[in-house]
Write a structure and sequence with these properties.
Length: 260
């Protein structure tokens, strides 16, 4: 009878055990490689995002400086034209305003269907809602039809800037998103070259070629009741007769200041 050692039966070779212990499974190696690749991609994406943010900040500052110089030149030209006309004994007539700001001051009770439809087109669905409108023959005609329910006028550049900066909300995926960063503007209307708040304000002020896209991106402004309130006796009376409704020209800036 021949006896076999137990170490041969149970595989007691220490060299083979060490080789098996040192070998990493292929699935683990693949997982490690995938995780390393994902980490590298995340690191590169973070770096690219930081670089883009820095470049966007530089571009926004440059755009704001360019527009400020443009506004300053336009104001100086207007003053020079006014002085020249006065020296010649005449009057300087500025260009007709291109944009109007409409504020709804009455609710839904007693509104005719036609006026209600026009206010829906102007996106004035609630009381104290405000929106910008490009002035042309058709919009002026529609404004006259809804004069008893709204007040409107010609906003200044500073009024437009305050409205967008303080009460500005953008429309992204049919949702109301606060304009807390230029990235919101770039995501909404970056395709037409409007990438920062300065671009958006300039497009509204000058009624540029992409005014429609910029205005549609802006959610209708939700203003508060004016400080001091409206008078119940004069709210339904036209502004020229001492009331609140209708066209109030540049006096709209004072009203917006009370409602922001």
């Amino acid at each position: 009878m021949v006896f076999t050692p137990l170490k041969n039966i149970f595989g007691g070779n220490k060299k083979d055990d060490k080789k098996m212990a040192g070998k990493v499974p292929e699935s683990v190696l693949k997982k490690q490689a995938t995780q390393a690749k994902i980490a590298d991609q995340a690191k590169q994406a973070s770096y690219d995002a930081k670089q883009k943010k820095r470049q966007d900040k530089k571009d926004a500052i440059a755009a704001a400086e360019k527009y400020a110089a443009e506004y300053k030149a336009a104001d100086e030209a207007a003053i020079a034209n006014r002085r020249e006309a006065k020296a010649q004994g005449g009057f300087f007539v500025p260009a007709q305003p291109k944009v109007a700001l409409i504020i709804r001051i009455r609710g839904t009770i007693g509104v005719s269907p036609k006026a209600k439809k026009i206010m829906q087109l102007f996106r004035l669905r609630q009381i104290h809602n405000a929106s910008f409108v490009k002035l042309n023959e058709s919009t002026v005609r529609m404004l006259r039809l809804i004069e008893p329910y709204v007040t409107y006028g010609y906003p200044s550049r500073s009024t437009i800037e305050k409205l967008i900066l303080k009460r500005g909300f953008g429309k992204l995926n049919k949702q109301r998103i606060p304009i807390a960063d230029n990235s919101v503007i770039e995501e909404g209307v970056g395709s037409v070259g409007i990438k920062c708040c300065a671009d958006l304000i300039h497009e509204i002020c000058t009624v540029g070629p992409h005014f429609k896209e910029a205005n549609n991106f802006l959610w209708p402004f939700k203003l508060t009741s004016p400080r001091g309130g409206f008078s119940n006796k004069t709210k339904l009376v036209h502004f020229l007769e001492g009331g609140e409704a209708g066209n109030r020209g540049e006096e709209i800036n004072k009203l917006v200041k009370r409602m922001i």
